[in-house]
Design goal:
about 300 residues, alpha/beta, Rossmann fold, two-stranded parallel sheet, 6 strands, about 15% strand
């Protein structure tokens, strides 16, 4: 059993008390207070409350209201590429045209695999945006319909999260995005994503340089919570070694995932979540459930 000094115990209490206040103030309203207490209890059982406090201290949780603000950043600040002289916002442009076929062959498309169910995050985000901004259905389409659209001028993909970029790259290949571009030489493509990691942005830009990426929140190395960049901010002797030792011990004893997603998919090791879902790039210790572990966030 780890022995914590007085400063460490104060830190643990302060972090968990702050999180509880955020929940009570409904800033983190979608996280249940009893879930927080149970999650803390899991760390306590393994003598690793310092680790739990550190992870919670670095958690970026975006509530439903915060996510709507992110959508506003994406949609309301987006200028229609075909109407720059008038500085027309995308939403104003869409709302002012009753019929998509008589103005511009612009389509908004969810990022979703061709065989994936419509319950995935891409369609969910698109439905939220459609209701929030009053976007008529004829501006929307499924990925498999793109090849049949003649004279496509603007293509806007939407999603909630981009981590390594592999999902978008695989998706783009599956719909033969290169061929779509060849058929429409003046086609302008934009990827609207609420949060994106710089690694994913770079990979997509290398693979598909013609895709313009717009995100509301950009993540980087500092968001990898077990990285030196993040841990070094705590200028306390032995702190990093203590956190890493506790993490490895908890993962092993609680039966948390090993292998490909042990440190978050793509080894991004994030502490990031939305009210509606948690990316698999986030450390499983936040969202994975076992007989010996109750997660804080919903996957």
């Amino acid at each position: 059993m780890n022995q914590f000094n007085e400063d460490q115990l104060d830190y643990v209490d302060q972090v968990f008390d702050r999180a509880k206040r955020l929940i009570q103030a409904r800033i983190w309203g979608e996280i249940k207070e009893h879930r927080l207490e149970t999650w803390r209890g899991c760390f306590h059982n393994y003598g690793a409350e310092l680790l739990g406090a550190y992870l919670l201290d670095n958690l970026c949780f975006r509530s439903r209201d915060q996510f709507f603000s992110m959508l506003d950043t994406l949609f309301l600040d987006f200028l229609n590429s075909r109407d720059f002289t008038k500085k027309t916002g995308l939403v104003d442009f869409l709302q002012s045209r009753p019929d998509a076929t008589t103005t511009s062959a612009l389509r908004i498309v969810p990022v979703i695999g061709l065989s994936a169910p419509p319950t995935k995050s891409g369609p969910y985000i698109l439905r939220l945006a459609q209701r929030r901004y009053g976007i008529r259905s004829h501006w929307l389409c499924w990925p498999h319909q793109l090849q049949s659209i003649e004279g496509l001028s603007d293509l806007i993909f939407v999603d909630d999260f981009c981590g390594t970029g592999e999902q978008f790259i695989e998706f783009s290949r599956s719909i033969e995005l290169d061929q779509i571009c060849k058929k429409n030489s003046t086609l302008q493509i934009t990827y609207l994503v609420a949060a994106a990691h710089v690694e994913g942005i770079h990979k997509i830009s290398m693979e598909f340089p013609f895709v313009h990426i717009k995100c509301a929140e950009k993540l980087g190395a500092i968001n990898t919570v077990l990285s030196n960049e993040c841990l070094d901010r705590y200028q306390i002797s032995g702190f990093q070694a203590q956190i890493m030792a506790q993490y490895q011990d908890v993962v092993k004893r609680a039966g948390l995932p090993q292998g490909k997603i042990a440190n978050g998919y793509g080894k991004l090791g994030l502490a990031y979540g939305f009210a509606h879902a948690t990316p698999n790039n986030t450390l499983p210790i936040f969202w994975y459930e076992t007989d010996n572990w109750t997660p804080l966030l919903e996957r």
